[in-house]
Amino acid sequence: MNEAAAGIDWIEAGRKLFAGPCAFIAGAARTEGLPPVGAPEIAFAGRSNVGKSSLINALTGRSGLARTSRTPGRTQELNFFDLAGKAIIVDMPGYGYAAVSKAKSASSCWWTGATA
């Protein structure tokens, strides 16, 4: 680690990042709906109903930024949130427990091949 990186308080930098302005910018159900490439993206992925959206709300200190539900499978598209132009948070649909048909679930996983 170089001297400049050693002097950075990473915890405080992270706190400031998430405490700043944050806004919903897009929800993408298909590749055509993806926002333009810009700031680095932080994607939250995992099983259905584990608290990905709740974690985003907790990190940003906003209770209603990312929609939450008790019912698995409510997030059905990629949701993008802008952290003051410094980073983009991506709330991804969960997998595993969603109360949707297997055909609908399989057809909605278009983003699995879209990552670089």
Written overview of the protein:
- The chain is of the alpha+beta class and 116 residues long.
- It is built from 4 helices and 4 strands, in the order ααββαββα.
- The chain has a 4-stranded mixed β-sheet with strand order 1-3-4-2, with helices on one face.
- The model has no long low-confidence stretch (mean pLDDT 79).
Euclidean distance between termini CA atoms? 27 Å
In angstroms, what is the radius of gyration? 16 Å
The number of helices is 4
Taking the sheet with the most strands, its summary is: 4 strands, mixed
Query: Helical residue percent?
Result: 25-40%
Structural class: alpha+beta
The poorly predicted ranges are: none
Strand content: 15-25%
Mean pLDDT: 79
Series of secondary-structure elements, N-terminal to C-terminal? HHEEHEEH
Task: Tell me the overall shape.
Answer: globular
Number of strands: 4
The largest beta-sheet arranges its strands as 1-3-4-2
